[in-house]
TrEMBL record:
<dbReference type="InterPro" id="IPR003607">
    <property type="entry name" value="HD/PDEase_dom"/>
</dbReference>
<dbReference type="InterPro" id="IPR052020">
    <property type="entry name" value="Cyclic_di-GMP/3'3'-cGAMP_PDE"/>
</dbReference>
<feature type="modified residue" description="4-aspartylphosphate">
    <location>
        <position position="53"/>
    </location>
</feature>
<dbReference type="Pfam" id="PF00072">
    <property type="entry name" value="Response_reg"/>
</dbReference>
<dbReference type="InterPro" id="IPR037522">
    <property type="entry name" value="HD_GYP_dom"/>
</dbReference>
<feature type="domain" description="Response regulatory">
    <location>
        <begin position="4"/>
        <end position="120"/>
    </location>
</feature>
<dbReference type="InterPro" id="IPR001789">
    <property type="entry name" value="Sig_transdc_resp-reg_receiver"/>
</dbReference>
<dbReference type="InterPro" id="IPR011006">
    <property type="entry name" value="CheY-like_superfamily"/>
</dbReference>
<feature type="domain" description="HD-GYP">
    <location>
        <begin position="154"/>
        <end position="351"/>
    </location>
</feature>
<protein>
    <submittedName>
        <fullName>Two-component system response regulator</fullName>
    </submittedName>
</protein>
<keyword id="KW-0597">Phosphoprotein</keyword>
<dbReference type="GO" id="GO:0000160">
    <property type="term" value="P:phosphorelay signal transduction system"/>
</dbReference>
<dbReference type="Pfam" id="PF13487">
    <property type="entry name" value="HD_5"/>
</dbReference>
Length: 366
């Protein structure tokens, strides 16, 4: 396909002279009689070079040049301005409107062809670069998509591993591990009600189920004791916070980093009387404060080998009384406002209970 040159001039003899020179050199010639017509043809035909006179009816060559250079579809087409004025100010004016070259009338045949060929080469390089950039962008998009898919799969596998790790401790004192699932779902409800960012909400949902992972390191005789722990035994039990944080430490994933904080702080109290560090108020990370109240509620309303599940209203009264003492006052209010959704989670993730089994049938040994 021959390269195209658009010749724009309102005088037919001038167009014919330019056509003769350009066609002889092997180019296809398009014609326009004014700036407006030139813009229409340029947008439709995408010529390789435009040869534009300045003084024309309807629209001047300089105005047409400005419009073409502002259009993303035509800005890359080189424009040669044909002018009778050769002073510096006029040349600067042409460049101001976006002209790539200019020729002073009357022009020489060889000069015209030299300018056209040079600009055609520049246009060819630009087109080649544009095509290469397009191919490169597609390649990058495809590779980026593949990497995103691979990362998503890896992230899902990592989160599944985290969930399984969180349930590991529960299999020692809760046969089903449903407690960890409920804690994660309930904590998500609280985080959503607090209008946290979605990424943080997701991390809280996945991190909080690992709050008791440290129980793996607690002896069975203490962990499974069907009765109240002695002060000495309770001191051993408290170590599960440090053990859990140690197990989860140095994790590179944001969920693992948060899980370490949750494991360490979910037994801290708002008034500073909790363990293991005696943190108070906002010294306790928000995920630890959320997990604290959720863990308390779910543990109290769930059956244990040493007691039956406590009545929901009784537990809610206990939470109200501990507002500002054990629990963050704001989170208590949010928790109570979300109780219907929390109870739905409780029901949904307690379906493993044997049909017909009642809490009253369980041993109650505080």
């Amino acid at each position: 396909m021959k390269p195209k040159v658009l010749v724009v001039d309102d005088e037919a003899p001038n167009r014919a002279f330019a056509r003769l020179i350009i066609e002889e050199a092997g180019y296809e010639v398009l014609e326009a009689t004014n700036g407006k017509e030139a813009i229409e043809i340029a947008r439709k035909e995408k010529p390789d070079v435009i040869l534009m006179d300045i003084v024309m009816p309807v629209m001047t060559g300089l105005e047409a040049c400005r419009i073409l250079k502002e259009d993303p579809e035509t800005f890359h087409i080189p424009v040669i301005i044909i002018t009778a004025l050769g002073d510096l100010n006029h040349k600067l004016e042409c460049f101001k409107y976006g002209a790539d070259e200019f020729i002073i009338k009357p022009y020489d045949k060889n000069e015209l062809l030299l300018r056209v060929r040079n600009l055609f080469k520049i246009k060819s390089y630009h087109d080649l670069l544009k095509d290469y950039s397009y191919i490169l962008e597609r390649e990058i998009d495809e590779r980026t998509k593949e990497l995103q898919e691979a990362y998503q799969k890896l992230d899902l596998a990592y989160l599944e591993l985290i969930q399984r790790l969180g349930r590991a401790a529960e299999y020692r004192d809760d046969e089903t591990g449903e407690h960890t699932k409920r804690v994660g779902k309930m904590c998500r409800i609280i985080a959503e009600a607090l209008e946290m960012p979605e990424e943080l909400i997701k991390n809280i949902e996945y991190a909080t189920p690992m709050h008791d992972i440290g129980k793996i390191g607690i002896p069975d005789k203490i962990l499974l004791k069907p009765g109240k722990l002695t002060p000495e035994e309770f001191e051993v039990m408290k170590r599960h916070t440090y053990i859990g944080a140690d197990i989860l430490s140095k994790g590179a994933h944001p969920v693992m980093e948060m899980a370490e904080r949750v494991a360490l702080t979910h037994h801290e109290r708002w008034d500073g009387k909790g363990y293991p560090l005696g943190l108070k108020e906002e010294e306790i990370p928000i995920e630890g404060r959320i997990c604290s109240i959720v863990d308390f509620f779910d543990a109290c309303t769930s059956r244990r080998i040493y007691r039956a599940a406590m009545d929901v209203e009784k537990v809610l009264d206990m939470i109200r009384k501990e507002k500002g003492m054990a629990f963050d006052p704001q989170i208590v209010e949010v928790f109570l406002s979300c109780i219907d959704d929390i109870l739905k989670v409780k029901e949904e993730y307690s379906k493993n209970r044997k049909r017909g089994e009642k809490d009253e049938d369980l041993q109650h040994n505080e």
